[in-house]
Amino acid sequence: MKKFKIDLDLLVEAFSINDDELGKEYLDTNTGDIIHIPIEVKKVAEEDGVEEDLADWQKELLEDAYAIEEDQENRYILLNNMESSYIYDAMVDFTREKVTSEGLKEKLIKALEGSNPMRSFKTIIFGCEEELDNWQDFEEEKTKEYVVNWLKNRGIEIE
């Protein structure tokens, strides 16, 4: 198992806000660095875009983008979004294990059983100040757990 320093908070953030329309996040398995490649830079590396159209700060990312595009040794691992089933299960666990108010628990269970359950859950929890902090702490803990397991499944351990 490879073992190196990884900024776990940054990796968690990368999993939490990964947006395909903005770009892609990669883990460099040689250094532990997390690399963000904006979609415009990725297009240039894939020969779908024009380098002259990039801003100066984007041009600085081209070397990484080309290295990722040409990677034959699986040095760079694409960070995908967290599985929605994992997030859903965390919401269910939070509702069952952490929510003490029976009224709120009933609302959350009903939301999770309905259509668009994750959005409904968040709408309710964001409207309930006394539980919002607890949910955010729980969600962060579950996200870290997900990321650590994701790394282990790829033979990587955090120093």
What does this structure look like?
The chain is α+β, with helices and mostly antiparallel strands and 159 residues long. A hairpin with a 5-residue loop joins strand 2 (23-28) and strand 3. The chain has 2 domains: 19-78, no CATH class; 84-158, no CATH class. The protein has helices spanning 8-17, 39-45, 56-59, 62-69, 84-97, 102-113, 117-126, 129-152; strands at residues 2-4, 23-28, 34-38, 76-78, 156-158. The strands form 2 sheets. Strands 3-2-4 form a 3-stranded antiparallel sheet, with helices on both faces. The chain is built from 8 helices and 5 strands; from the N terminus they run E-H-E-E-H-H-H-E-H-H-H-H-E.
Mean pLDDT over the residues: 92
| Helix count from the secondary structure assignment | 8
The neighbouring-strand order within the major sheet is 3-2-4
Number of domains: 2
Structural class based on helices, strands and sheet pairing: alpha+beta
Distance between the termini: 11 Å
**Rg measurement, Å:** 19 Å
**What is the tally of beta strands?**
5
Q: Low-confidence spans: pLDDT under 50, at least 5 residues?
A: none
Order of helices and strands: EHEEHHHEHHHHE
Sum up the overall morphology in one term: elongated
Please state roughly what percent of the residues sit in beta strands, choosing from under 5%, 5-15%, 15-25%, 25-35%, 35-45% or over 45%: 5-15%
Largest sheet: 3 strands, antiparallel
Question: How is this structure best summarized?
Answer:
With 159 residues, this protein is of the alpha+beta class. It has helices at 8-17, 39-45, 56-59, 62-69, 84-97, 102-113, 117-126, 129-152; strands at residues 2-4, 23-28, 34-38, 76-78, 156-158. The mean pLDDT is 92.
